[in-house]
Write a structure and sequence with these properties.
Order of helices and strands: HEEEEEEEEEEEEE
Strand content: over 45%
Shape: elongated
Distance between the termini: 32 Å
């Protein structure tokens, strides 16, 4: 994963050098509406709101295409609770709802396609990989056992939105985890993954 990330960053840096006149710096932020899923339906998660914020770069390319890259501080809180009654006998005594707040640095690298609706507005579509690196707590002691985050994770973004006056963007995306985000010590056969709807805005200068 580190090699892939390095190649993506190098490719983006080369493109930025060539198209420096089309490069814009900005700030991006918004809300995470998190859905934490667990295989075998042992746990479920109601949507919990978190947030993300950080610097962003947007590179415009010919024919309406472009690339945007960001380094976002991302916080996702989710409440997990037992769902499948048949698994209760395998859970420790005193289990119950657990709230887990995961903090990370997320690096999305999205390919964009812009559809102009005039000189000052348009629609964009975006998709691409996102690389996540936990910060702060990586181990959570819950009533059902120790939950440990992976050192890195990969997900994919699928998004759309509108841009106005060439500086402001408002949009949404779905962040789909490519693999598990962590695992429980006492439930090692349960693979977790974090998905989230994201609603946000960006200002480019």
């Amino acid at each position: 994963m580190k090699r892939i990330f390095t190649l993506v960053v190098l490719a983006a840096a080369m493109a930025m050098t060539v198209q420096a006149q089309s490069l814009k710096f900005g700030i991006k932020g918004g809300l995470n509406i998190t859905k934490m899923s667990f295989s075998k339906d042992v746990y479920k998660s109601d949507n919990q709101t978190g947030f993300y914020v950080g610097p962003a770069l947007k590179l415009s390319l010919p024919l309406g295409f472009g690339v945007d890259i960001a380094a976002l501080y991302d916080q996702r809180s989710t409440e997990v609770e037992p769902e499948n009654i048949s698994y209760e006998s395998s859970l420790p005594e005193g289990y119950g709802n657990e709230k887990i707040t995961q903090k990370s640095i997320q690096v999305p690298v999205n390919v964009r396609y812009n559809i102009g609706l005039g000189a000052t507005a348009g629609i964009y579509l975006a998709l691409g990989p996102q690389f996540g690196f936990p910060v702060g707590d990586k181990v959570y002691n819950t009533k059902v056992g120790e939950y440990r985050l992976k050192n890195a994770n990969l997900s994919f973004n699928f998004g759309a939105g509108v841009y106005l006056l060439k500086h402001l963007e408002v949009g949404f995306s779905y962040n789909l985890a490519a693999g598990k985000s962590g695992e429980f010590e006492n439930l090692s056969d349960i693979d977790t993954h974090n998905n989230a709807w994201q609603i946000g805005a960006a200002i480019y200068f």
